[in-house]
Amino acid sequence: MAKILLVKHLFPYPPSQGTRRVSLALLGDLATRHEVVYLCQLEHPGERELVPKIERLGVRVVAPLMPNHRTPVHRLLYKIKNRALSRLQDIPEVCYYWSNIALRTNLERLQDEFAPELTILENWETFPLRRSIKTGIAALLAHDAAFQILERAVAATTDPRERARRARALEQQKRLEIAAWGMYEAVMTLTESDRETIEQELGLPDPQDSLSPGLPPIKPIVRHLPVPVPGEFFDFSRPATPGKRVGFLGTFRAHFNRDALEFLLQEIWPELSWAVPDARLVIAGNGYQGRLKTAAERAGARWMGFVHDLDEFFQAIDVLLVPLRFGGGVRIRILEALAAGVPIVATPVALAGLAARPEEHLLLGADAAEIAGQIEWLFANPREAAAMGARGRAWCREAHGPEALRPRRLAVIDEILALRSAAGDARRHDRGGRS
Questions:
Q1: Topology, domain 231-400
Q2: Which one of 95, 135, 219, 270 is most buried, by most CB atoms within 10 A?
Q3: Nearest Cα to 123, choosing from 97, 160, 158, 150?
Q4: CA dihedral 33, 36, 42, 45 (to 10 degrees)
Q5: Model pTM?
Q6: What pLDDT score does 210 carry?
Q7: Residue 261 to residue 322: CA distance in whole angstroms
Q8: Residue 64 pLDDT > 60, yes or no?
Q9: Which CATH fold topology does 3-228+403-434 show?
Q10: Cis status of the peptide bond prior to 45, with omega within 30 of 0
Q11: CATH 3.40.50.2000 residue ranges for the chain
């Protein structure tokens, strides 16, 4: 049994987003074998009532309130301060929000009180917190190679000004992200393709810059930490009578989901409505109130908003559409829909990083006409659609079931803990002498 500290910039409950379910799954796995402390932060005081939901996994939770959520004055001053620091140091504002004083002081306190053998930070943007890890091994749960999302966004943009703006942002983010990876002894990704990307970027002959003068760059080990699907998804039932309802699901905080919905409404839905006039559209996601919602309502869509129970959403649709034109990491919504036995039509970008097989477990479409054609085929062949959903569920249970994956995931953690060998200790001693 080892002492492990997991740090996340946001409170992970309720598990309404893929990134939250990733965190909770990791906590649950770690707690079966190790002593775990979880450091996160609350967006509002009411979230304290949900802390026991996480503690029942067998972990100790430390959850300070975000500094900018105390009063409106705190919020304003915090925003001004972070914006000024961002411009002065050429670092995205989000890095300051995700590594604020509340997290930093508690991290430093836990380094002394808990003395973790392994500290895991989530998301590369939390890299300023790396300087506060003084005990044991420091690892990063990167989720993905995030700069690739911007690379695909640049490629998908036709407006010259927007393309130039995104290209500038890409140059900055890629430089910072690669440097952040080099601050850790280990980096974990959710897909094999992202693992390969990170290893390739860190393996370039030119040494990576360090983001901290006290932390010279090192060559971390990079490992794939596969994503489990919660067991309840495999118990979801499908509607007894199939219909012609197309579902779209995603958090609209992510620009790639907003772009995907725009693609659906402007290009895919006109094609599908012409071919299948009685098709219906169902959209679910967090509280977006912009022009896309208005456009969806004009198209006759059912706007469910945020859904607490995904079984309710999956019961309300006959096909899940994931029309991403750019994105990164693993599409957890696809894994969960596969587990629920839902027929899926997706773009090749959406399937990237997943081993599910097109034509066997789901269908792919590269453009609006092809996507509409795949949905039309599923509606016209309900038995084949149901059989595809059943094959997808069986594959997902074998490849991403929680019990099947737990030994593999814990083996990754064991390998990282083994870095406390003589070689790892010598490396950290050398780093300490230069700080």
A1: Rossmann fold (3.40.50)
A2: 95
A3: 97
A4: 100
A5: 0.85
A6: 59
A7: 9
A8: yes
A9: Rossmann fold (3.40.50)
A10: no
A11: 3-228+403-434, 231-400
